[in-house]
Amino acid sequence: MALKFFNRVYVLTASTGTAAVNLGAAISSNLYSFSDVGAADGDNVYYAIEEGTDIEIGIGTISGGGTSLSRDAVYSSKIGGVMGTSKINLAGAGRVRVIEPAEFINLITDHMNATNNPHGVTKAQVGLGNADNTADSDKPVSTAQQSALDTKLDIAGATIRGRSRRPRTVSPTGTTLPTSCQGASRIA
């Protein structure tokens, strides 16, 4: 199953030893039990188990409909003041909670801030297989484009002859402008 996170889960456990822990009731009425939040068999969670001054941080798997948690991998612990990766040998007065360990949060943050394409996504995978990063000025003109351009009039310095008609308009000063002109016009 997938890694799951649950808010404010903090329960008692009367389990002893280093095996899976039985998950009891929430420590207080403003906290949740694993079954309260719908933790399902097979869900993996980051957990912290505390008893006395000892702590164990790891990842475990929910079973028994939210009543049991295996202790699959211990990432860090502090038992009797000594740092390590050992399981606490529980004496029946533990507390278990769901956590988001710093290592996990740091991995997510580093990943979100990565600008070097960490997944190796290609342009073809996102539907841009025919795209390139060529500047427009460096792109070739197709035969069809060049044929269309060849039929256009280069207006710089051209003389246009003939009769032009335009609708009758009134200038901002109120003068009526002519509706046609005849002769040649030079475009500079």
TrEMBL record:
Which keywords does UniProt give here?
Signal
Superkingdom, taxonomy of origin: Bacteria
Region listing for Disordered, in residue ranges: 128-188
Give the compositionally biased regions (Polar residues): 140-149, 170-188
Q: What is this protein called?
A: Uncharacterized protein
| Signal peptide (from-to) | 1-19
